Amino acid sequence: MSVSFSIITPTLNAATFLPACLESVRSQSCPGLEHLVVDGGSRDATLELVRAAPGVTVLEQPRSNQVQAINAGVSATNGDVLAWLNADDEYTPGALRRVADEFEADAATDVLYGDCDVVDDVDNLLWRLSPGPYDFRRLLRRGNYIAQPAVFIHRRVFERVGMLDESFEFAMDYEFWLRLRNCRVRYVPSVLARFRWYSTSKTARNQFANWGEVLRAARRHGGGWTPELAWSFARMVVTVARVGVLRRLNTNATREPLSRSATLD
Questions:
Q1: If pLDDT is split at 50, 70 and 90, which confidence band does 236 have?
Q2: Domains in the chain and their CATH numbers?
């Protein structure tokens, strides 16, 4: 039996990168593919773009935030395997076919994830995330090493461990991964997605808030500060300060990537 997919894209004034996101899903040519855009009240061209896109459904949820939109999308869709793909991220060609093959080959798989390319706002490759196998203790020790756009979750997982925690705005994926310790989580060494990292993205603009949520999630699951987390935090602080100084000097620092966050979203 073939696997069906539900891809959820939360949006809010996302017109800049949304066309590439929509096309990356549409071009998968995967049978049983459902793509739902959940919009929180966009005032730009987002809704026009979605309504003009073939095979895409829109659910308007005014005043909802990203996590609420994703949870609403999980409840409103029917696919066997779910994922959320933010409006500035993309799937690589053939990604869903590779994921479907893996789920079909091992019906006990609860979650599957792969590698992810990190690109800037003009598609230059910055680095590649190759996370390796799921390791709960590693997640607690060093933060989120799993790239969310490359993660695919069987619907039964949400029934087992619950939905995303809506008290989080940045580290909701990291907190959810920590709940997967008793699930069958598999890693495939294949680039499945592209994550866009640029100075005005949600993650880059809110790195201190992001870190606060990472620590809250870690403590909830028995963790806290570790040498690895402290080192990553110190690198982030130095990089943010350096970029701020360069901006004040009127350089082109806004095109430089900030340091990697402890959680990618």
A1: confident
A2: 5-198 (3.90.550.10), 204-255 (no CATH)
